[in-house]
Amino acid sequence: MRFRSLESRIATVFLVLILVIQVVSFIAIRAGIDANARAAIGNELAIGERVFRKLLEQNAEKLTQSARLLAADYGFRQAISTDDRETIETALDNHGQRINASLTMLVSSDRSIKAATTKHVSPALLKLVLQLVDQTEENGGASGTAIVDNLPYQIVAVPVKAPITIGWVLMAFPIDDKLAVDMRELSSLQVSILTRNEEGRWRSIASTLLAPELASLLGQLQAAPSAPPVSFDLNMAGSEFSARLLPLGKDAGQIASVLLQRSISEAIGPYRQLQLILLILTGLGIALGVAGSILTAKRIAQPLRALAESAKQLGTGNYQGRIDIQRDDEIGALGKAFDHMQDGIAKREIEIRRLAYWDSLTNLPNRAQFVTVLDEALMQAQTHSTGQTGQGCYVLMMDLDRFKHVNDVMGHDFGDALLCQVALRLTQQIDAGRATVARLGGDEFAILLDRAGLDEARQLAAKIIQSLEIPLSLDDQTVDLGAGLGIAGFPEHGNDAETLLSLAEVAMYAAKQRSNGAVVYDPLIDTASKQSLSMLSELRSAIDRNEFRLYVQPKLMLGTGKVVGLESLVRWEHPVKGFIFPDNFIPFAEQTGFIRVLTRWVLEQSAMLCRDLSALGHHLKVSVNLSTRDLLDQDLTNKFADILTRYQVGPASFCLEITESAIMDDPVRAQLTLEKLHTMGVDLSIDDFGTGYSSLAYLKRLPVDELKIDKSFVLNMELDAEDSKIVRSTIDLGHNMGLRVVAEGIESEAVWHLLSGMGCDQGQGYFMSRPMPADKLVGWLAQWQAPQHRDAAPELIR
């Protein structure tokens, strides 16, 4: 197994867990056994100490009884009374031999040794004897331990009374091998009776240890720098023992002790088999765990491998294989879910393929499928082309006329049904074996005519246009639709699908502009399109290269001459073509949608100018023109709010100007956008009022603040009474609607005074200032002087 595989990882995890558990358990149990064994040894030694002392007590009692028998003997007491030393010594010796006493002694009433079986009595022994004699006065008998001739003895003393105390009998019993053997038999402890002289040398008196162990014991005791503690561990001849040292007596610097030892190995011996069994069980557990973990890992990993293999098959697009995992657990559920997923993916891919290559509304091929079919047709045409006619393929692209109007008036459902009728009519006009109809999107359709010439393509186009001249009836509604149709083909116009589609589209738009049915592609048609593409590319580069310039024209109060605002205008300084006026690029920008980028640039620059002017103390309202495409941008308010936030300018500092035609192109969406802007606090103005075809009933519902009279009515109003009447009526209309009225195109002082007399609020024009670069505005404000007030001609004001 590779460790990187899931199977090996599962097996490894299980194995490690089992090993850790087994090893920890084994160590814990072994440590517990060792601790229990040592505790048991400690108990055994403590009990052994009590047993040993009990043996000493029994020996003392035995000696005491023997001594009492001797002390109670009449002949012995008579010998003491008559001071018959020979009889006393004989009695002491005989009685001591009967009980195996090693030492017998008679102490006279004056506390001197009267007779003894030993010739030498050490001062320490004499001292102990006198202490025992004194103790008999209180207890009627006493016992103790002494060292005689380097050997430890247990000594008892009893008084001899006749009837008063006439002496004391003392008997000594050696603490030797017999006591050690008895102790060994009673307790299973090793017993060593030891003495230690003044030089610190240890000597064994009796021991149950083997010779090597005893030698090792004496060597370790001798090597110790000081006397050992009561309890300690030692190692003798490779065996570990736990020992307890009991003092027996002391004589002239010599110390007698008994050492009780318990072999730790022997104590743990009964547990060794248990440990072996535990070790065997641990090994078996590990082996079973390894086998179980491997089987478990295989049981988990093998179905997953099958699922992975199925996933690979799914990735290659093979949905035929079945996933057979007969299990009732989660993996079985996963296998069933995977099987259902495979079926679902297969069904969805079929549906996706259909949606990707077929139009869901008309069930015709879509653009992607049409391009695929066109590529195949071009490959065959290029392979079999011999230069003869009838071996090419042609693309006919068609766009319906007035379809947007039908959608707006009748609704999108009606429009969709109408497209289905058009698709049906197109399929009825073609030869299914040589032509393919597709819907490219919206109301655009394309027809591929294979193995045909240009004349056949023209004939099919005429046939299609003729079929569309027949009105379509749908839901009791009769709709008259026309179409523009462009033709491009191989080998005349292009060699690949995208080129043919593009050229056919150019020809189609030319046909729609000329309103003359079908148009075959001609390079001259495409010249204007290339120029348009060049203009769009140059506009985009102008934004990136900062070629646009912000110009402004002041707006003034006509009654006081005070400057209250300015209108932002854009100019283009082309690096090659020079200064380009707005009329040369603004209409194109509106057609292509680039006007949105341009409007955003003007808003950015105007906000920056407004911020700078406010810092200088000039608080002017900035007017910016919005196009039709700007009004249809539902995200315009968010973009404008972002600009205001970044430049820290309030919405009240702006007035956005909208033309009547821009409003009326889509009144509903325009009103929604205007309401959002008005809610922000921005002033709104209707620009070029009077030049459009707006409905006053609709305009009065718009949230506007200002009405701007188009300059075409203002320029000649001083000389043209009709223009003057229109301007006066517009001013009155605006005021009646509660709007601020602004006149543009003021080019003389007379017109200024004339508009002021009519009550017009504000004005702008060449008389006050031509549009100027934004950075020149502050200088102009410093030198501006309003004209002196005078009355206008009454006949023009009326």
State the low-pLDDT regions, or none: none
Beta-strand level of the residues, as a percent range? 15-25%
Q: How many distinct helices?
A: 26
**What's the pLDDT, averaged over the residues?**
81
Q: What share of residues is helical?
A: 40-55%
Widest sheet: strand ordering: 18-19-21-22-23-24-25-26
Query: Helices and strands: which structural class?
Result: alpha+beta
Global shape: elongated
Q: Describe it for me?
A:
This protein is an alpha+beta fold and 798 residues long. Helix content is 53%, strand content 23%. The chain has 26 helices and 27 strands. An eight-stranded mixed barrel has the order 18-19-21-22-23-24-25-26, surrounded by four helices. α21 (696-699) links the parallel β23 (683-689) and β24 (706-709). α7 (264-315) runs parallel beside α8 and α10 crosses α11 (412-428). The longest helix is centred in the first third of the chain and has 67 residues, at 6-72. It is elongated.
Describe the structure concisely.
The protein is of the alpha+beta class and 798 residues long.
Topology:
Layout: H1 6-72, H2 74-82, H3 85-98, E1 103-108, E2 113-116, H4 123-139, E3 142-148, E4 151-161, E5 165-174, H5 177-187, E6 190-196, E7 202-207, H6 211-223, E8 231-236, E9 239-251, E10 254-263, H7 264-315, H8 330-357, H9 367-384, E11 392-400, H10 403-410, H11 412-428, E12 435-441, E13 444-452, H12 454-468, E14 472-474, E15 477-479, E16 483-490, H13 497-514, E17 518-520, H14 523-545, E18 548-557, E19 563-574, E20 578-580, H15 586-592, H16 595-615, E21 621-626, H17 628-631, H18 636-647, E22 654-659, H19 660-665, H20 667-680, E23 683-689, H21 696-699, E24 706-709, H22 711-714, H23 721-736, E25 740-744, H24 749-758, E26 762-764, E27 772-773, H25 777-783, H26 794-797
Parallel strand pairs: 16-17, 19-21, 21-22, 22-23, 23-24, 24-25, 25-26
Antiparallel strand pairs: 1-2, 1-5, 3-4, 4-5, 6-7, 6-10, 8-9, 9-10, 11-13, 11-16, 12-13, 14-15, 18-19, 18-26, 18-27, 19-20
